[in-house]
Write a structure and sequence with these properties.
single chain, alpha+beta, 6-stranded mixed beta sheet, 6-stranded mixed barrel, 39% helix
């Protein structure tokens, strides 16, 4: 806001120039006292503030430290003004009856009368806090009763200041922030308003209490802070409503001296009091009786137009957020509970979004494309003459449409023993089963210890833990690095395969490189898993000497080129007369379960968000009720309805922002825990882990923005209610 410059000694209101520079331009200065009805111009005198204000505040070497207190003096005129209260359901009261009154610029007028005679109502009309039921009120040449909210707010901000009997400070703010509040509303920069606030506190002798909360001051100190606040935006009209009513005689005398000196400096002062001794300080007295004004000494008619001032800037968005969030901090328990409700709803929504994104990413992942989710296992029919497949059958199935890769499972029954041991040494029966090709499938077993075979042709095996114990190892891991000899006894998993019995044994030396659970072998039999090509070569080495013609593969696995093609591939295989099983059935069951879980979480999230929105609305409505008087103070200081609305919206947005941040962080933490749990559940489906809950940065940011947006919308109606508060009625609220 463009503030009036410091008035130099040579340009006092009674000096020759009559103008002072504002931002380099020659603007009208305070109206000379000769324009008022009270005679010659009063000379500027040293300011006598209070008992604490001593000689240090007097002019030093001809310079007055407090020469920039006031703006252009304001004249007032009331033409046949009446004000009535009460509606259809309320008691009808006439507070003012046909009041006509002129108060010239630079006058000092006292309005006296008993309680309930309309003094405070008259003061509210002069200050633009209320509008007349009939008649016209002019202030600074402006028709106050007809001005829109923006213009009447500018009038209160730039032209007039009210000193209330009950001080009307905001208790949770510091003394300095209370004094600087009008400057904050006017958009003054932080450093400038701090300087001005401390300057005014020095005027009233409270510079050492600047960082003290207003609620900790005595009554006299609070009134001095109210006076300092009234001077923050350099008013031309000072309205004092029983300024000494709540003070002792010493403190009251200090306030009256301040008013005397402000009037001498050129301010128009209107003092409401019921004390005749206080009224004698004024130069003119108006008595109020039953809502009517009786002039004890009539004044001259005032001019209706005054020099305009530049439109003020308005509160910066940073100050709006600061004041709004500060209001939320005054009720920590209620704010925490409301924030928790927002956090629960946002956490649930974030988890749902992360779940949907994670599942989609997992289904599209290259690792999943070669896992058992895309595989079709093929078995012979139950009444087949030979319950096994040969190489031509594998080749036929591999040529089916949508088959990316195909391999057979070679299984041999036999015995395991230590390499180089004598035939009389202890051996243990077991099975040797082929692994999927390392390059064709990602569905490899999870190791208890050790590593996977290095290649498909390496003579390396994964020994089951039960076989390791049967061979005499105290711990299965001790078998790693041991060479074993496997001697096949039949070409299948059961000895009933009479066509593939071993008559000419072929011992095979293998190296144990890893330990796996017995669950990875068919029917949980003890034994070992060997590379696919190694097992094919071993089968060929046995089939020649033993004259085996068929039955090489116990089962065949087909890898579809797409998850969408698994079902069609399965139907083609079954049409050829084979039995099938898709391992994706297990995953799809899990996916269905997650889908139901998403619906449940979505319902929970919606309920939580609705409750959170209701909580925010309730919190904001309660805040409006608790802060009704504060709303009146803000409007009396010049806040527009829009400013008040933005303050409450900033408070609601702050609660939502905090809840969104907490909820997003909780969702990220729960998502990581969920990913770890899902990895353990899906080990048998895919060997490589994937994130079911994908908490991306955009998801987190979207959740935070959504929380702030919903909270702002929830606080809109309470904010509008606060903005629509009538300032005069709000100030009377208890």
């Amino acid at each position: 806001m463009d503030q009036p410059a410091v008035l130099p000694d040579s340009a006092s209101p009674s000096g020759p120039s009559g103008h002072l520079p504002i931002n380099g331009e020659d603007q009208p200065a305070a109206l000379p006292a000769s324009a008022g009805p009270s005679g010659p111009a009063p000379q500027a005198q040293p300011l006598r503030g209070s008992p604490q204000v001593g000689s240090s505040h007097l002019p030093v070497n001809g310079e007055d430290q407090f020469r920039d207190l006031l703006g252009q003096a304001v004249g007032l005129r009331l033409d046949a003004v009446s004000r009535e209260f009460g509606g259809r359901d309320e008691m009808h009261v006439t507070a003012l009856r046909n009041v006509t009154l002129d108060i010239g610029p630079c006058e000092y007028v006292a309005i006296v009368g008993p309680s309930g005679c309309g003094k405070s109502t008259l003061l509210s009309l002069m200050g633009g806090l209320d509008r007349p039921t009939s008649g016209h009120v002019y202030g600074a040449g402006l028709p106050l009763g007809e001005l829109p909210d923006r213009d009447i707010s500018d009038y209160r901000l730039q032209r007039v200041s009210t000193i209330f009997q009950t001080f009307n400070l905001i208790p949770s703010m510091t003394v300095e922030d209370n004094v600087a509040l009008p400057l904050t509303l006017a958009g003054v920069e932080l450093e400038e308003r701090r300087r001005r606030a401390r300057h005014l506190l020095a005027l009233v002798g409270l510079e050492n209490r600047a960082r003290t909360r207003a609620s900790r001051l005595s009554g006299g100190e609070q009134q001095k802070v109210a006076v300092a606040r009234a001077l923050a935006n350099r008013p031309g009209l000072i309205l004092a409503d029983e300024p000494t009513g709540s003070l002792d005689s010493t403190a009251g005398e200090g306030v009256l001296r301040l008013l005397d000196d402000l009037n001498r400096r050129g301010a128009t002062v209107v003092l409401v009091t019921h004390d005749p001794e206080v009224a004698r300080r004024a130069r003119r007295v108006v008595r109020m009786i039953d809502g009517r004004a009786i002039e004890l000494e009539a004044g001259k008619p005032t001019v209706r137009s005054q020099e305009p001032v530049d439109p003020p800037a308005r509160m910066h968005w940073r100050d709006t957020l600061k004041v709004g969030l500060g209001s939320a901090g005054r009720r920590p328990l209620r704010t925490t509970l409301t924030t928790t409700g927002v956090a629960i709803g946002i956490a649930a929504l974030s988890l749902i979004i992360a779940l949907a994104g994670g599942l989609q990413q997992a289904l599209d992942a290259p690792a999943l494309a070669t896992s058992q989710v895309h595989q079709v296992a093929v078995y012979p029919v139950a009444d087949a003459r030979t319950p096994a497949f040969d190489a031509p059958t594998l080749a036929t199935l591999a040529r089916l449409p949508n088959v990316r890769a195909a391999w057979g499972q070679v299984a041999l029954s036999g015995t395991f023993g230590a390499a180089g041991a004598t035939p009389s040494a202890t051996t243990r029966a077991g099975v040797l089963v082929s692994l999927p090709p390392l390059g064709a499938s990602s569905s490899v077993p999870s190791l208890t210890a050790g590593r996977m075979p290095s290649t498909d042709v390496a003579s390396e095996v994964l020994l089951t833990d039960s076989e390791a114990v049967a061979l005499g190892f105290r711990s299965p891991t001790r078998a790693i690095g041991i060479h074993l000899t496997f001697v096949a006894t039949s070409g299948g998993l059961a000895s009933g395969f009479t066509s593939n019995q071993v008559s000419t044994p072929v011992p095979m030396n293998v190296l144990v490189v890893g330990i796996v659970s017995t669950d990875y072998l068919p029917a949980g039999a003890p034994g070992a898993l060997a590379p696919n090509s190694f097992m094919g070569a071993y089968w060929s080495a046995l089939s020649g000497p033993n004259k085996w013609k068929s039955g090489e593969f116990a089962s065949i696995t087909l890898l579809a080129d797409s998850g969408l093609k698994v079902d069609s591939l399965r139907r083609r295989v079954e049409a050829l007369g084979f039995q099938t099983q898709t391992f994706g059935d297990q995953f799809r069951f899990f996916e269905d379960l997650l889908g139901k879980l998403k619906v449940a979480l979505l319902g929970l999230a919606i309920i939580a968000l609705l409750l959170a929105c209701l909580g925010i609305a309730n919190t904001m409505y309660t805040a409006v009720l608790e802060r009704t008087k504060e709303i009146g103070v803000l409007k009396a200081l010049g806040a527009r309805s829009r400013d008040v609305m933005l303050l409450f919206l900033a408070e609601a947005a702050g609660i939502g922002l905090a809840g969104g941040l907490v909820g997003a962080l909780v969702a990220v933490g729960l998502g990581r825990l969920g990913n770890a749990a899902v990895d353990r559940l899906t080990q048998s489906v895919a060997s490589t882990g994937f994130d079911v809950f994908r908490s991306d940065v955009p998801v987190v940011l979207m959740a935070v923005v959504l929380a702030a947006l919903l909270s702002t919308v929830s606080g809109l109606l309470p904010a509008l209610r606060a903005a629509w508060q009538d300032p005069a009625r709000a100030l009377r609220h208890e």
